[in-house]
Model the fold of this input.
Amino acid sequence: MILEHNRTAWDRQVEVGNKWTVPVDEQQVMEARKGKFSIYLTPCRPVPQSWFPVLKNSRVLCLASGGGQQGPLLAAAGAAVTVYDNSPNQLQQDQRVAERENLDIDIVQGDMRDLSVFGSESFDLIVHPVSNAFVPEVRKVWTEAYRVLREEGILLAGFTNPVAYIFDENEYDKGLLVVKNKIPHSDCESLSEEAISLRLDNGIPLEFGHTLEDQIGGQIDAGFAIKGFYEDTYGEQDLLSEYIACFIATRAIKRA
Done:
């Protein structure tokens, strides 16, 4: 149910023009062909250029990363890119940019927790922007990412600090920070069936607030070594961002 709900929700987010579904333009692709590009794992801070390997001929998996944003820029920079996402409409955005810009991008639909369509050690780099908040089992994402990366391969991941999920959503919309929820958090457990149906009707995904032990410790337990870290906010207009950075990005290396 969750997979199907969130697939439909993100398809609708494309239809309404959510900022994470709007593809890059011709100028951005042109600059990426020259090696000048910025991609985002979190809302506001671009990934440091020092976090990337040499992209020319690198095999890159954009994991749960449809929308025509990261994949086309990495392909324009010379990488062999596969975009893997649950939402057909999100993938269609990547396909449109690929056709418009004559980019060779493989498009694959699927669940981020199941990468069985890919062989072990298939990729040099995985780019995984904030998206594992939309699945209940995040550790499966890390173990599968580890399997499909080659030795010394790099995982660039963005995810939500679970503190963002402790507040009452209705009060938050009124500008009030009222603690209500426990972590780990699940919309499926905290919302009524009526509220879940309403989210589906309005194209709003179901979310899960994972512990930092599962987000960071889960990467380490899967075999990764964390080699880079930064925090980010929602932006200036967000209530909670006035007090704390709600997003985290990590650079992890696959060790044998």
About this structure: DSSP finds nine helices and nine strands in the chain.
